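Duplicate of #3305? Posting structure anyway:
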Protein backbone atom coordinates (compact mmCIF):
# COMPACT_ATOMS: atom_id res chain seq x y z
CA UNK A 1 0.00 0.00 0.00
CA UNK A 2 1.31 3.45 -0.96
CA UNK A 3 0.61 5.88 1.88
CA UNK A 4 1.22 9.62 2.22
CA UNK A 5 1.05 11.21 5.66
CA UNK A 6 0.99 14.98 6.03
CA UNK A 7 2.27 16.04 9.44
CA UNK A 8 5.32 14.57 11.17
CA UNK A 9 4.18 15.30 14.70
CA UNK A 10 3.72 12.57 17.30
CA UNK A 11 0.61 11.12 15.65
CA UNK A 12 1.83 11.24 12.08
CA UNK A 13 5.17 9.71 13.00
CA UNK A 14 3.58 6.89 14.98
CA UNK A 15 1.27 6.01 12.10
CA UNK A 16 4.18 6.12 9.66
CA UNK A 17 6.31 3.80 11.77
CA UNK A 18 3.55 1.22 12.20
CA UNK A 19 2.62 1.17 8.52
CA UNK A 20 6.24 1.09 7.38
CA UNK A 21 6.98 -1.83 9.70
CA UNK A 22 4.20 -3.70 7.89
CA UNK A 23 6.07 -3.19 4.59
CA UNK A 24 3.88 -0.42 3.22
CA UNK A 25 5.49 2.37 1.20
CA UNK A 26 5.17 5.45 3.40
CA UNK A 27 5.98 9.08 2.66
CA UNK A 28 5.95 11.56 5.54
CA UNK A 29 5.62 15.29 4.80
CA UNK A 30 6.26 18.18 7.17
CA UNK A 31 7.08 21.87 6.79
CA UNK A 32 9.43 21.82 9.80
CA UNK A 33 12.94 21.06 8.55
CA UNK A 34 14.25 20.59 12.08
CA UNK A 35 11.58 18.02 12.88
CA UNK A 36 12.42 16.01 9.78
CA UNK A 37 16.14 16.27 10.55
CA UNK A 38 15.45 14.63 13.93
CA UNK A 39 13.67 11.77 12.17
CA UNK A 40 16.31 11.27 9.48
CA UNK A 41 17.78 7.80 9.81
CA UNK A 42 15.47 6.97 12.70
CA UNK A 43 12.36 6.03 10.74
CA UNK A 44 12.23 3.81 7.68
CA UNK A 45 10.02 6.10 5.62
CA UNK A 46 10.53 8.64 2.86
CA UNK A 47 10.76 12.15 4.30
CA UNK A 48 9.79 15.25 2.33
CA UNK A 49 10.11 18.81 3.61
CA UNK A 50 7.49 21.31 2.54
CA UNK A 51 3.89 22.45 2.73
CA UNK A 52 1.46 19.63 1.92
CA UNK A 53 -1.12 22.28 1.01
CA UNK A 54 0.89 22.90 -2.18
CA UNK A 55 -0.29 20.74 -5.12
CA UNK A 56 3.22 20.52 -6.58
CA UNK A 57 4.56 19.08 -3.33
CA UNK A 58 1.78 16.49 -3.10
CA UNK A 59 2.50 15.45 -6.68
CA UNK A 60 6.21 15.14 -5.85
CA UNK A 61 5.27 12.99 -2.84
CA UNK A 62 3.43 10.58 -5.12
CA UNK A 63 -0.20 11.61 -4.69
CA UNK A 64 -1.05 10.43 -8.21
CA UNK A 65 -0.34 6.84 -7.24
CA UNK A 66 -1.20 6.92 -3.53
CA UNK A 67 -3.70 4.43 -2.11
CA UNK A 68 -4.22 6.41 1.08
CA UNK A 69 -3.51 9.93 2.28
CA UNK A 70 -3.71 10.87 5.95
CA UNK A 71 -3.84 14.57 6.82
CA UNK A 72 -2.51 14.57 10.39
CA UNK A 73 -1.26 18.10 10.95
CA UNK A 74 -2.19 20.08 14.05
CA UNK A 75 -4.15 22.61 11.98
CA UNK A 76 -7.69 21.80 10.86
CA UNK A 77 -7.57 24.29 8.00
CA UNK A 78 -4.47 22.63 6.59
CA UNK A 79 -5.98 19.16 6.97
CA UNK A 80 -9.06 20.24 5.03
CA UNK A 81 -7.06 21.81 2.21
CA UNK A 82 -4.78 18.77 1.96
CA UNK A 83 -7.80 16.45 1.88
CA UNK A 84 -9.54 18.44 -0.81
CA UNK A 85 -6.45 18.48 -3.02
CA UNK A 86 -5.86 14.77 -2.51
CA UNK A 87 -9.38 13.82 -3.50
CA UNK A 88 -10.26 16.39 -6.16
CA UNK A 89 -6.92 16.97 -7.89
CA UNK A 90 -5.17 13.64 -7.41
CA UNK A 91 -8.12 11.25 -7.01
CA UNK A 92 -6.60 9.50 -4.00
CA UNK A 93 -8.96 6.55 -3.31
CA UNK A 94 -9.07 7.03 0.46
CA UNK A 95 -8.46 10.21 2.42
CA UNK A 96 -8.46 10.40 6.21
CA UNK A 97 -8.13 13.60 8.20
CA UNK A 98 -7.43 14.40 11.82
CA UNK A 99 -9.95 16.68 13.54
CA UNK A 100 -8.11 18.78 16.12
CA UNK A 101 -11.00 21.00 17.22
CA UNK A 102 -14.33 19.23 17.70
CA UNK A 103 -16.13 22.44 16.75
CA UNK A 104 -14.81 21.93 13.21
CA UNK A 105 -15.91 18.31 12.91
CA UNK A 106 -18.92 19.18 10.73
CA UNK A 107 -16.57 20.38 7.98
CA UNK A 108 -14.77 17.06 7.63
CA UNK A 109 -16.93 15.29 5.06
CA UNK A 110 -17.09 14.53 1.36
CA UNK A 111 -17.42 18.19 0.42
CA UNK A 112 -13.80 18.63 1.51
CA UNK A 113 -12.67 15.29 0.13
CA UNK A 114 -12.61 13.56 3.51
CA UNK A 115 -13.62 9.90 3.54
CA UNK A 116 -12.86 9.40 7.22
CA UNK A 117 -12.70 12.09 9.91
CA UNK A 118 -10.87 10.96 13.03
CA UNK A 119 -10.87 12.90 16.32
CA UNK A 120 -7.40 13.64 17.64
CA UNK A 121 -8.08 11.69 20.83
CA UNK A 122 -8.71 8.42 18.96
CA UNK A 123 -6.30 5.64 20.03
CA UNK A 124 -3.53 5.02 17.52
CA UNK A 125 -4.56 1.55 16.39
CA UNK A 126 -8.21 2.55 16.04
CA UNK A 127 -7.18 5.61 14.05
CA UNK A 128 -5.16 3.52 11.60
CA UNK A 129 -8.01 1.04 11.25
CA UNK A 130 -10.43 3.88 10.51
CA UNK A 131 -8.05 5.49 8.04
CA UNK A 132 -7.38 2.33 6.05
CA UNK A 133 -10.93 1.05 6.18
CA UNK A 134 -9.95 -2.13 7.99
CA UNK A 135 -12.43 -3.67 10.39
CA UNK A 136 -9.80 -5.02 12.76
CA UNK A 137 -6.09 -4.91 13.42
CA UNK A 138 -5.30 -8.08 11.50
CA UNK A 139 -7.11 -6.81 8.41
CA UNK A 140 -5.31 -3.49 8.73
CA UNK A 141 -1.87 -4.95 8.31
CA UNK A 142 -2.91 -7.63 5.85
CA UNK A 143 -3.64 -4.76 3.47
CA UNK A 144 0.12 -4.70 2.95
CA UNK A 145 -0.08 -8.31 1.65
CA UNK A 146 2.63 -9.17 4.15
CA UNK A 147 0.40 -11.37 6.27
CA UNK A 148 1.37 -9.71 9.54
CA UNK A 149 -0.35 -8.51 12.69
CA UNK A 150 0.29 -5.49 14.88
CA UNK A 151 0.26 -6.14 18.62
CA UNK A 152 0.44 -3.61 21.42
CA UNK A 153 1.69 -4.16 24.96
CA UNK A 154 2.45 -1.77 27.83
CA UNK A 155 5.18 -1.89 30.45
CA UNK A 156 3.98 -1.59 34.05
CA UNK A 157 5.92 -1.41 37.33
CA UNK A 158 5.20 -5.14 37.70
CA UNK A 159 6.54 -6.09 34.26
CA UNK A 160 9.65 -8.25 34.49
CA UNK A 161 11.17 -6.35 31.57
CA UNK A 162 10.92 -2.96 33.31
CA UNK A 163 14.47 -1.63 33.60
CA UNK A 164 15.85 -4.10 31.05
CA UNK A 165 17.28 -3.18 27.66
CA UNK A 166 15.01 -3.85 24.70
CA UNK A 167 17.69 -6.03 23.11
CA UNK A 168 17.56 -8.36 26.13
CA UNK A 169 13.92 -9.24 25.50
CA UNK A 170 13.46 -12.53 23.69
CA UNK A 171 10.93 -11.91 20.93
CA UNK A 172 9.05 -14.65 19.10
CA UNK A 173 10.43 -15.52 15.68
CA UNK A 174 9.29 -13.21 12.92
CA UNK A 175 8.52 -10.36 15.32
CA UNK A 176 9.97 -6.84 15.31
CA UNK A 177 9.35 -3.76 17.43
CA UNK A 178 7.85 -0.98 15.27
CA UNK A 179 7.98 1.81 17.84
CA UNK A 180 7.97 2.57 21.55
CA UNK A 181 5.70 5.36 22.70
CA UNK A 182 7.22 7.07 25.76
CA UNK A 183 5.65 10.11 27.41
CA UNK A 184 3.42 10.49 24.38
CA UNK A 185 6.33 10.58 21.92
CA UNK A 186 7.41 7.85 19.47
CA UNK A 187 10.84 6.50 20.35
CA UNK A 188 13.22 4.63 18.06
CA UNK A 189 13.38 0.96 19.17
CA UNK A 190 17.12 0.93 19.87
CA UNK A 191 18.27 -2.40 21.40
CA UNK A 192 20.10 -0.43 24.11
CA UNK A 193 16.95 1.45 25.15
CA UNK A 194 15.94 0.50 28.68
CA UNK A 195 12.24 -0.12 29.09
CA UNK A 196 10.39 1.65 31.85
CA UNK A 197 6.87 1.70 33.26
CA UNK A 198 4.49 3.61 31.03
CA UNK A 199 6.17 2.60 27.77
CA UNK A 200 3.74 1.43 25.09
CA UNK A 201 5.27 -0.98 22.60
CA UNK A 202 3.91 -1.66 19.12
CA UNK A 203 5.17 -4.84 17.50
CA UNK A 204 4.66 -6.35 14.06
CA UNK A 205 4.72 -10.13 13.73
CA UNK A 206 4.10 -12.80 11.13
CA UNK A 207 2.94 -15.45 13.58
CA UNK A 208 3.15 -14.42 17.26
CA UNK A 209 -0.02 -14.28 19.33
CA UNK A 210 -1.04 -11.69 21.89
CA UNK A 211 -0.29 -14.22 24.60
CA UNK A 212 3.25 -14.82 23.34
CA UNK A 213 3.99 -11.11 23.25
CA UNK A 214 2.56 -10.71 26.75
CA UNK A 215 4.74 -13.54 28.01
CA UNK A 216 7.86 -11.96 26.47
CA UNK A 217 7.39 -8.60 28.16
CA UNK A 218 5.30 -9.20 31.27
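Output from current build:
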Amino acid sequence: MNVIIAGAGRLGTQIAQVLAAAHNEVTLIDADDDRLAELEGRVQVRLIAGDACEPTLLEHAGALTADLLIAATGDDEDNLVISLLAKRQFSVPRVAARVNDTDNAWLFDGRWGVDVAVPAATPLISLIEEATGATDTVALLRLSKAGVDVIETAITPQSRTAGRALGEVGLPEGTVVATIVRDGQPTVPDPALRLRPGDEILLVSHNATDQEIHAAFQ
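Confirmed duplicate; merging threads. The beta strands are 2-6, 25-30, 46-49, 68-71, 94-99, 116-119, 149-154, 175-182, 185-187, 200-205. The radius of gyration is 17 Å.
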